[in-house]
Design goal:
Layout lengths: L1 E4 L8 E4 L10 E9 L2 H8 L1 E5 L2 E4 L15 E8 L11 E4 L9 H4 L23 E4 L5 E3 L5 H4 L5 H10 L11 E3 L3 H12 L6 E4 L2 H9 L4 E4 L5 H9 L3 E6 L4 H10 E9 L13 H4 L3 E4 L5 H12 L8 E4 L4 H9 L6 E4 L2
Parallel strand pairs: 10-11, 10-13, 11-12, 13-14, 14-15, 16-17
Antiparallel strand pairs: 1-2, 3-6, 3-8, 3-17, 4-5, 6-7, 7-9
Helix pairs in contact: 4-5, 7-8
The structure holds zinc ion (ZN) (2 copies).
Length: 350
């Protein structure tokens, strides 16, 4: 098998040829048909997150072992099945749920594999989709993708699921008042379409970049507001029709988290999704006074992925603009992503 492997943090990937993996038990071996390059792959390559106040979270200290084949947005076609894997249609492509747990802890037993304390996430804890071949432990992680092409289906495993799970956390409010979406990059555009697929009102979107605000309006946002404006909070609340019931921060910077906090009203919910970095400066007394709920949302559960894929197969999930590239271009594409030069999603097609 061929793969692009991270052998040192902060360094370009290495092209490797390895022996083809074999399968046993319930394992499934797949030929990778597409794999999206996610912004969080940059953090993995860097080896850390910025936690603000001079602190960092190091992946190495948290047990991430190198060399690692990154890639957590894979689709594939079955090459081989272990003797206990059961019947799987080998003639079609599947999108692979990457947020796999140990399968044996209380989180996993509750259906929250994505919160497992011994995660086996593809492309983070075990080798992922920057390769032409991938092995997974069980066929239950394979999802039907209908008539979607691999490059359109692949990003649903992370960017699609992350957005969907965040919206599910405020689903009770999105029909009552427009949800505020902060950040109109790939996730933001996905969120605008998903809100509508879930029956919500057209969202109010905030972004610093005029081009992204324009894209948000074209995707169906009710209004798109410049987060850098002095009166950004007032503009958001005017667009919502009052203090917001829910805000989703897809950026995760100090400024965006501050805006989310100020924009929501009593009983409001803030869902933190973005991993830009920094620390929050929320006034603590206002958390009880506003009775605000601050939720983190990290990817999504296997059940949520099933719900998302059902919507996607029905054609209700907007496709991100994607460009496909050869596997060998992975390092170069990560550099371009870091420099902000990728529009939509870059997808590797080995
Ligand atoms: Zn991702
Ligand atoms: Zn577990």
């Amino acid at each position: 098998m061929k793969c692009q492997s991270l052998t040192d943090f902060k360094k370009p990937l290495t092209s490797e040829t390895r022996p083809d993996p074999t399968v046993s038990g319930t394992e499934v071996l797949l030929r990778v048909t597409a794999n999206g390059i996610c912004h969080s792959d940059l953090h993995i390559r860097e080896g850390s997150y910025n936690l603000g106040q001079g602190r960092t979270l190091s992946f190495g200290d948290r047990g991430l072992k190198l060399p690692l084949v990154m890639g957590h947005e894979p689709t594939g076609r079955v090459l081989a099945l272990g003797p206990d894997a059961g019947e799987v249609d080998t003639s079609k492509d599947y999108v692979i749920y990457p947020w796999q747990g140990c399968g044996d802890c209380f989180q996993c037993n509750m259906g929250r594999e994505n919160y497992c304390a011994s995660p086996q996430y593809l492309g983070l804890n075990v080798d992922g989709g920057y390769a032409d071949t991938i092995k997974i432990p069980h066929p239950r992680y394979l999802f039907d993708m209908g008539t979607l092409s691999p490059e359109i289906a692949a990003p649903l495993a992370c960017s699609g699921l992350t957005t969907f799970s965040a919206l599910k956390k405020v689903e009770d409010t999105i029909k009552e008042a427009p949800v505020v979406i902060i950040g109109a990059g790939g996730l933001g555009l996905m969120a605008i379409g998903l809100v509508q697929a879930m029956g919500g009102l057209a969202p109010v979107v905030v972004d610093l970049d005029p081009a992204k605000r324009k894209a948000a309006l074209a995707a169906g946002a009710a209004q798109a507001i410049d987060g850098a404006a002095d009166d950004a909070v007032a503009q958001v609340q005017a667009a919502v029709g009052g203090p917001a019931l829910a805000a989703i921060d897809l950026v995760g910077a100090e400024s965006s988290a501050g805006l989310a906090f100020d924009a929501v009203g009593k009983g409001g919910k803030i869902v933190m999704v973005g991993l830009f970095g920094g620390a929050a400066s929320w006034p603590l007394p206002l958390i009880p006074v506003k009775a605000v709920t601050i939720l983190g949302s990290y990817v999504g559960s296997l059940k949520e992925f099933g719900e998302l894929m059902a919507l996607a197969v029905d054609g209700k999930v907007p496709a991100l603009p994607t460009q496909t590239h050869e596997l060998e271009k992975a390092s170069e594409l990560l550099d371009q992503l870091e420099e902000g030069k990728i529009i939509g999603r870059a997808v590797l097609v080995p």
